[in-house]
Write a structure and sequence with these properties.
There is one protein chain. The protein is mainly β. Strands 35, 55, 56, 57, 58, 59, 60, 61 and 62 form a nine-stranded mixed sheet that branches. Strands 3, 85, 86, 87, 88 and 89 form a six-stranded mixed sheet that branches. Strands 67-71-70-69-68 form a five-stranded mixed sheet, with no helix packed on it. Among the domains are: about 470-505 and about 855-910 and about 920-1165, 7 Propeller (Methylamine Dehydrogenase, Chain H); about 1170-1270, no CATH class. The protein is globular and about 105 Å long. α9 (about 1230-1240) packs across α10. Helices cover about 5% and strands about 45% of the residues. InterPro entries: Beta-prop_RSE1/DDB1/CPSF1_1st (IPR018846), RSE1/DDB1/CFT1 (IPR050358), WD40/YVTN_repeat-like_dom_sf (IPR015943). It holds the Pfam family Beta-prop_RSE1_1st. This is WGS project CABT00000000 data, contig 2.5.
């Protein structure tokens, strides 16, 4: 019988056996296990977009991007720049913001403008500019700025991480408003050495601004000759100006540690001096290249220069500071500060400088000496600078020193300025001010600020937090359809004394200028302007029973009572309406009308008061309930018993000249007099609301609006548009006779009554109104035509009152807001008045929405946080002084720590048992709903670096006698483990936690009151995060990413738990979230994101299987933590947030998926069906195709408009397309338009285009596409 040897599997091991041929054939013929039916994975795409840019600032550069007269400052982040104008009042005004598709590697300023010699008058602060860093200075080459055809005095040069160099400036747009212009140089993509990701690590511009040097670390640098500013004209399109005239590459042997340009002698301004520090074999050399302006760069850099070896103590200088005297420079090393001379004529000579600087401050967290991190050059009069140079030096622990170096390179002056209470990073700058030096102190570990050198803090500018965790004040158990207050987002940020909790907020900032507490019972208030006549303002307010008035001087310094004989108002009755029109002031109360000319100070003939008893003699004992004043009409609603009547009085000067009246059927709930539409009356009759419109002379009829709650207030605006608010929280918008019809829209914006007042902005043509609801203020902008000619569109933004002096203060609960007529300290702002409890607040409302974060300082390092709905507080795991672990229970509204640690006997302690150990850290923090025998108890679970697993009990103390709320907490159970507890969760009666790489599944024994082991399972690496999925366990492990584990709890044998699914990728994960029943979202440290699908498997199968990957993509940042939450404002909830346009529900309660990075960037994730993905990807591909038209000569390729890739869409590019409204430019051929229509026809089974029945025009499809983009790109918090 024929036989042969082969390998067979026996008892789980491969062994070699001799098998005869017949046995082999029988084994092949035997029926095997039935193959599982192959199931195709669902087709799903992912849309990601940045909803909050990082506030981390890498550098701060004063730069005149518009003109010599605008004191602009560029705040450079990782992917974005923010241009702000520093104003004379010490505040910043936002000018423009731009986000780039690539990270910004480096930045500097090109160009300057002449500073006339002998400038003595510094009152015109904006007409001169400080000679700042050497990269920014040009004392002779730039032209005068007089013609609009020329570029501004300076440009901003940015090096991106893909080796592009972008030159940026600001010019007027088509509407006259500031707009970015840019010119991009792609030529540096050619050298393969520049594709390693660090090109532009060093960057400098010479003092003449005619040359720029760029380098990578790896021995290659480029010197570019720039065009003279005299040859520049302002382009109308991108990339129509060539900034780089030519360039030359030069390689060196070694690593380029630093480079800069030195100053030439004053009599030899065309002398160009480039200094490089090159490190090879652990030794540093100083290399100098010299040439004259206009020399051939190929000849200058034809050969490498060897240079001179640096002394040992100056081997690795951290900073090179060129001095304006003698072509010298200051080299700052960790141990020494020295000035280097004779660098052009032989071996360098270093002379140490003894600075007046104290030892390290409490802001220093390192083990060695604090390092000098930044410098800047202040402005001084030219005659003062003759023969000397002036510098500010900043140290990382907040120390700032001012020095002066004379022409002999001796230290003439060294002055310690201050030990500022913040860390200082490279984002340090001097700003010009006509009274004192102003310093911008940027931090990479806490709050940055702006200080005058005289010791005055002007403002906090930005927070640069390492963000480790975040939480959303939202419970996943609430019903998705319920309207509710939006979830708030809180991030654990900062380190040590600068640690804080950051509340992420987006909306229109309202900078609080004055807050006056005037008493309870405030119903409405008005600020009346008498500054031109009497040099004062009158603050008039009303309560339910009377009115009051106070006077404010023009500088708002004091609130005083008027003299009794100067009170011109009716203060005995509640005020209904007040206005200043045509030179007179009109007050309407429930009892009278008062009219007086603005010049009047006392009761004279130019002051008149008309009581309603005399005006309305046909209605004795009349009650006046509502009033409004419009131009020269006073309109009131009155009633005697159930009968309501409308009176409208026309006045001229202080005299009432005519009167119109008419009865209405029903109860009047609101009234408004529109110049275009007439008298608008809100009525309630027969159990239904009505809106009635009349002219002052004839009735035009009434129209039934909707069966909703009673109309609370009416406001007419913009020609034939009417806005109404209801007691039930609805905002109704009626467009009268729009396209020969009356169109009615309504939207729920809150849960309480809606009040409406007019707002105005001087820099926009779009009408705006202020709406108060749910103790918050909302600005509503009306777009008269909407995108692409659609009907009226309302854009809503929350108004966020902000106190620049206390960025952690709770936001006032605003009951009412209105625009007021006072001078605004800053251009482009609207002064508004708000009522908040007993206070009247006067603030400046910003024109454009943006980030308005709240920073709650805690003075400790927060590492973990989550929101507890049961405790209504943020639970924060922190390290306090001495790196001891503890817990905080923070009230989200007040920002106060309301936690009280106690022992089991109830005695207050500093730390509960198990916490408070030095050099410890909280790795795991979670809330556990312990369920046993139908009962539920809530505990906190804490896992620490020192191996402590702690079960914490909590108890809320009731409010008593005005005492603030508090939460007592103590250790109920504690278990010591043999290694760090990296993650922990609770499930029913069990606690699952990971110690080193061992998973433990313990059960709490209520009798013995301790945790009893039930199961253990060894992983290949530690578990960063855990989550229960039905009966299985999802574990995010350090080496193997996501694993789905069957714990096999009923099997008591060892190692019975099995891994059923694992991530097929080799990545280092950071966070994960289960987004649907069988789908998880996973992020990794390499900026990756992927959707993993658990596909159905045959029962009883226990071998490993790989998750199917549905999509993957690259993010702009690495996500540290994923969270879900329903954070959209109320008007975006309910029916307004149902899935449409192909959006898939991401969480069971239709919440949002948010991710945060360590630099504070927040990313929003949206799941797409295949049709939505194909449409959005098609648009992105077309945009990339257009953007790369300038690169095709370099890359030789074109993107395919139909390219699908890895099922990922970049939402930031879609936002750029939407803002620029360039869809028509992208879809510019019949072939592309045909594809575009097909993609839109496929959305949601064609319900959006079916009504066109094949007759839809291109405009119809473009309008639909814009609506799709607006839907996907709405702000989510």
């Amino acid at each position: 019988m024929t036989s042969f040897r082969t390998n067979v599997l026996r008892n789980g091991e491969w062994v070699s056996e001799t098998v005869d041929f017949q046995t082999f054939l029988r084994a092949q013929a035997a029926p095997g296990p039935k193959r599982a039916e192959q199931i195709d994975p669902p087709i799903c795409g992912l849309l990601t977009r940045t909803v909050a840019d990082s506030q981390m600032v890498k550098s701060v550069l004063p730069v005149r991007l518009r003109s010599p007269h605008h004191n602009d400052v560029a705040f450079i982040g990782h992917r974005s720049i923010q241009i702000r104008e520093f104003q004379s009042n010490g505040q910043f005004r936002d000018i423009l913001f731009r986000r780039f598709p690539h990270n910004i590697r480096n930045a500097c300023v090109v160009g300057s403008f002449d500073i006339p010699d002998g400038v003595d008058d510094l009152n015109s602060a904006m007409d001169v500019d400080p000679p700042a860093k050497v990269e920014e200075q040009d004392l002779h080459s730039s032209p005068s700025f007089g013609s609009t055809s020329q570029l501004p005095p300076q440009l901003l040069a940015l090096v991106m991480d893909n080796a592009d160099v972008v030159f940026l400036w600001i010019g007027p747009g088509a509407d006259g408003r500031p707009e970015f212009y840019s010119s991009t140089e792609f030529v540096f993509r050619r050298p393969p050495q520049f594709q390693d990701g660090n090109f532009g690590a060093h960057m400098a511009v010479d003092p003449s601004s005619r040359y720029m040097a760029l380098s990578s670390f790896h021995g290659l640098f480029a010197v570019c000759e720039l065009e003279s500013f005299a040859n520049f004209t302002r382009p109308q399109d991108e990339n129509t100006v060539g900034i780089v005239k030519n360039f030359r590459l030069r390689g060196v042997q070694g690593v380029i540690q630093s480079l800069t340009f030195l100053y030439p002698r004053p009599e030899d301004k065309d002398h160009i001096i480039l200094l490089l520090i090159v490190v090879k074999n652990g030794k540093s050399r100083m290399v100098i290249y010299e040439w004259t302006l206009g020399d051939n760069l190929a000849d200058v850099f034809a050969e490498e220069k060897r240079g001179h070896r640096l002394p040992v103590e100056h081997q690795m200088p951290q900073l090179l500071i060129p001095l304006t005297v003698g072509s010298a420079f200051i080299a700052i090393s960790p141990e020494q500060v020295a000035v280097c001379t004779e660098s052009l004529h032989g071996p360098p000579i270093f002379e140490s400088l003894e600075l007046d600087a104290p030892p390290k401050s409490p802001n220093h967290y390192g083990t060695g000496n604090p390092l000098w991190t930044a410098w800047d050059r202040p402005y001084r009069l030219p005659r003062y600078l003759k023969g000397k140079d002036c510098l500010y030096l900043a140290r990382e622990d907040g120390i700032v020193v001012y020095i002066e170096v004379d022409e002999d390179h001796a230290l003439e002056r060294s002055t310690f300025i201050d030990a500022f209470k913040c860390n200082i990073s490279s984002a340090f700058a001097y700003l010009f001010d006509q009274y004192a030096d102003v310093l911008v102190l940027g931090s990479d570990n806490g709050t940055g600020s702006v200080w005058k050198v005289c010791g005055t803090s002007l403002a906090f500018t930005f927070v640069v937090p390492p963000t480790l965790d975040f939480a959303v004040t939202d419970s996943s158990g609430d019903k998705a359809s319920e309207l509710r207050a939006p979830g708030r987002i809180f991030a654990a940020s900062g380190h040590g004394l600068t640690g804080c909790i950051t509340e992420y907020r987006h909306g229109l900032k309202a900078d609080i200028g004055l807050e006056l507490e005037i008493g309870d019972g405030l119903k409405q208030a008005w600020l009346l302007n008498f500054s031109n006549t009497h040099g004062r303002y009158d603050l008039l307010w009303t309560t339910p029973i009377h009115s009051q008035v106070r006077e404010l001087p023009e500088d708002f310094s004091d609130l005083t009572d008027p003299e009794p004989d100067q009170i011109l108002y009716d203060l005995f009755s509640p005020t209904l309406a007040v206005a200043q029109v045509n030179g007179v002031t009109v007050q309407v109360t429930t009892a009278s009308i008062t009219i007086f000319k603005n010049e009047v100070r006392y009761i004279t003939d130019e002051w008149k008061q008309f009581s309603f008893d005399k005006l309305l003699q046909d209605q004795p004992h009349v009650s006046v309930s509502d009033a409004c004043i419009t131009d020269d009409w006073i309109t009131v609603s009155t009633h005697v018993g159930p009968q309501f009547r409308i009176y409208s009085f026309k006045f001229y000067g202080t005299a009432v000249v005519s009167q119109v009246q008419f009865d209405v059927s029903g109860d009047v709930t609101s009234i408004h007099h529109s110049k275009n539409l007439g008298i608008i009356v809100g009525l309630w009759k027969d159990g239904r609301p009505y809106l009635q419109i009349r002219t002052p002379t004839t009735e035009t009829g009434s129209r039934d609006v909707e069966e909703i709650d009673i109309a609370e207030q009416v406001s007419a605006s913009v020609n034939n548009a009417i806005l109404l608010g209801t007691r039930g929280g609805e905002l109704i918008h009626i467009s009268k006779e729009w396209k020969s019809t009356t169109m009615v829209y309504y939207q729920q914006i809150g849960l309480t009554a809606v009040k409406i007042t007019a707002a105005r902005h001087s820099h926009t043509s779009r009408p705006r109104v202020l709406v108060s609801c749910d103790q918050a203020l909302i600005e509503v902008q009306l777009d008269e035509h909407g995108p692409n000619g659609s009907v009226y569109h309302m854009t809503k933004h929350r108004v966020l009152p902000t106190n620049a002096g206390n960025l952690g203060a709770p936001m006032p609960l605003v009951e009412y807001g209105m625009a007021i007529d006072i001078p605004c300290a800053s251009e482009g702002f609207t002064p508004i008045l708000m009522l908040a409890g007993p206070s009247v607040i006067i603030a400046e409302l910003h024109e454009e929405p943006g980030l308005a974060h709240r920073y709650i300082k805690i003075g400790k390092t927060p590492v973990k946080t989550f929101y507890s709905p049961s405790l209504r507080s943020l639970v924060v795991g922190v390290n306090d002084e001495g790196k001891k672990t503890t817990l905080m229970f923070m009230d989200p509204d007040t920002g106060e720590d309301i936690g009280k640690p106690i022992d089991k006997a109830g005695t207050p302690v500093q730390h509960i048992v198990g916490l408070g150990k030095s050099e410890d850290r909280i790795h795991g923090l979670a809330e556990w709903e312990y369920k046993k025998n139908g009962g539920t108890w809530r505990y906190l679970l804490v896992g620490t670096k020192h191996g402590q697993l702690i079960i914490v009990s909590t108890e809320k103390e009731p409010l008593e006698g005005g005492r603030p709320p508090s939460i007592k907490y103590w250790t109920r159970h504690k278990k010591s483990c043999e290694g760090p507890v990296y993650s922990v969760i609770g499930h029913e009666e069990s606690v699952i936690y990971c110690v080193d790489n061992i998973l433990h599944w313990d059960v709490l024994d209520p009798v013995e009151k301790k945790l009893k082991p039930r199961k253990t399972f060894e992983l290949e690496s530690l578990a960063l995060d855990l989550q229960i999925s039905e009966t299985k366990l999802l574990a995010l492990t350090w080496d193997d990413s996501l694993q789905l584990i069957d714990p096999a709890l009923d099997d008591v044998s060892e190692n019975s738990a099995t891994v059923e699914f694992h991530d097929p990728r080799e990545v280092t994960p950071t966070s994960f979230m289960k987004v649907q029943d069988d789908m998880c979202l996973v992020t990794d440290r390499d900026r990756g994101v992927a959707g993993l699908w658990k596909w159905p498997r045959a029962s009883g199968t226990h071998n490993w299987a790989e998750f199917k990957m549905l999509f993957q993509g690259k993010l702009p940042v690495s996500i540290r933590k994923l969270r879900r939450g329903r954070t959209r404002p109320t008007w975006e909830q309910g029916v307004w947030n149902v899935p449409k346009y192909g959006r898939l529900i991401s969480t069971p309660d239709n919440g949002e998926i948010l991710g945060i990075s360590i630099d504070g960037t927040m990313i929003h994730f949206t799941l797409l069906d295949q049709h939505a993905f194909r449409l959005l990807r098609f648009i992105v591909n077309l945009y990339n195709l257009r953007e790369r038209r300038d690169e095709e000569r370099l890359l030789g390729e074109k993107p395919d408009p139909g390219y699908i890739g890895q099922m990922h869409v970049d939402g930031d590019l879609l936002k750029t397309i939407l803002d620029a409204e360039v869809l028509q430019d992208l879809v510019n051929t019949d072939e592309l338009l045909g594809q575009f229509r097909i993609l839109l026809d496929n959305l949601d089974l064609g319900i959006y285009t079916s009504g066109w029945k094949g007759q839809g025009t291109a405009d119809h499809y473009f309008e639909l596409a814009y609506n799709v983009l607006m839907c996907y790109l709405r702000q989510v918090y």
